[in-house]
Each structure stands twice: as C-alpha cells, then as structure tokens.
Design brief:
Chain lengths: 123, 123
DNA sequence: CTAATATATGAATGATTGCTCAGGTATTTG
DNA sequence: CAAATACCTGAGCAATCATTCATATATTAG
C-alpha cells in the first residue's frame, strides 16, 4: 500500500490517488509554509476594495493619511489600520514631514502586481 | 468652503483636507467599483495558504481533484469549493477526461502574479 | 437499466477580518 | 511647559470565509 495518500474527508477519493508521481513532484517543488503564508498575506492585503483603491491611488503619487481618508470616505482610524497592514508587508512606505506622514508604494513590484492583476481582471 | 472633503469618522481630520487637488486627481483616475471589486476578489482568491499551495502546484502542470486533495491533505469537497472560487475568477480552467477533471492555470497572468508576488515576499 | 466513481454544491458553523470607539504617541505652536 | 494637530493602536462587534456534512450531478462499467 505504498501508493496511497491520506485524505482528510469522509468522502475521500477511494483508496488511491490517481497520479502519485505528479503529487510527489508537487510536494518537492512546494514552498515552505512560512513563505507561503507571507505570500498569502501579501495577496490578502490587496483583497479588499477599499485597500485596493487606496493602493491604486498611491500608484499615482504619495498621499497623506488625511488625503486618503477623504478620498476613500472612511475614518482616518480605518485608513491607519489598513496602512499598518500594508506597511507590515512592505507594500507601502512612509515619509514624515512635520506632523504629516506621506505614504507611497514601497517598490515597483507593487505597481506590477496591480497592473498584472488588473490586466487579468479586465480580460 | 469648497476645499473641504467629508470624512466618515468622528475623529475626522479637522475640517480641511490637506491636498485637495491631489485627492481630486486620484478620484478621476480611480477605477469603477465593479472593476475594483473583481480585482479585489482576484487577489482574495490568492490570499489563502491552502489555495495558494494549490495554484502553485498547478503552475507545475495540470492535476486532478483527487491529486490535489491528496497533495493538500484536505477533503475533495474542500478542494472542489476552492477550485470553484478560482474558476469563477478565471484563475484556473479544467478539462474532462472520462470521470476525471484535470485542472490547470487559466493563463500566463496567473503564473506571472505568483512570480511577482513571490519575488516581493522574498525580497 | 443499476452500481460505482469523481466531482460539485447548498447549508451550517467556527475562525478571520473591517470597521468603530476610545484611548495613546509624535510633532509643532505658543 | 500646555494645547493642538496628525496619526497610531488595542478591544469589541458585525460581516465574510474555509471547512464539514449531506446530497446532487456526471461519467463509466456491467
């Protein structure tokens, strides 16, 4: 019984897995859990319309928290929470000028992701 | 009082928005709600480690539902739900051969998104 | 036709997530 | 120094989501 793969559910796909070698190869090529998790959280940061609108706005140049709150029509507190999340994943960075913090996209990857994602969504 | 922007919260950022013209420009360049929503859902489909592992596995070639369930160690039902979501956003496509459905990435955009995202997550 | 296999799907449920509220920190002004 | 402004953050609540369970559909075998 060396071909079998354990499945979790009660409606498991019989006893056999159809392509054992293909599954094994996928296992070898798989990313480690920590990387997978960070990648998932990165995409997750872009999975909300409000946050996405925020990031797209920043792709047009830097903005302060007040500007973003006004633009998104949400409270500065909400914006700040979202910015913290984006910051945590290095999607945006900030620069202080007096009391004002100006946010912008962290690097070109971010604009690239937006472009590619949009190209796919529109096709 | 033509410079003011309404904000939603009670701790609203004073009465004034700092860069009115910048906010106005962002408004002009903004995507329409439906597009934004679809884009958000597209990224959302990639925001779960299990689904991400699934999609990355498919980037190495097509796999059937059974294979994926075995590889991910979740029930075929759970995989099927996830595949439906990915299918709905045209991230994966399927081809039937007898009773077996083989899934693969829908187009190059998808692999591109994974690559770009990974490059960012690893930097 | 009936039985078996592979996959799909609706409903229910526990876990995440977005927002608000109520504070707290950092910077400038007087 | 104290007051004001811009922003941050922890806790709590409502909505969303991933999974399970039960059932339904599609294809092949007999």
């Amino acid at each position: 019984m060396e071909n079998q793969q354990e499945t979790a559910g009660p409606d498991l796909c019989g006893v056999r897995c159809i392509h054992t070698e293909r599954v094994a190869r996928a296992g070898e090529e798989a990313l480690e859990a920590a990387t997978l998790d960070r990648l998932a959280r990165t995409f997750g940061a872009l999975s909300d319309p409000t946050r996405l609108k925020l990031v797209m706005a920043l792709s047009g140049g830097e903005m302060c928290v007040c500007d973003l709150a006004a633009f998104l029509k949400v409270s500065p507190s909400a914006v700040s929470h979202q910015l913290a999340r984006l910051r945590d994943l290095c999607l945006v960075k900030r620069r202080r000028q007096g009391q004002v913090l100006y946010y912008s996209l962290d690097d070109e990857h971010v604009a690239g992701l937006l472009e590619l994602g949009l190209a796919h969504a529109l096709e």
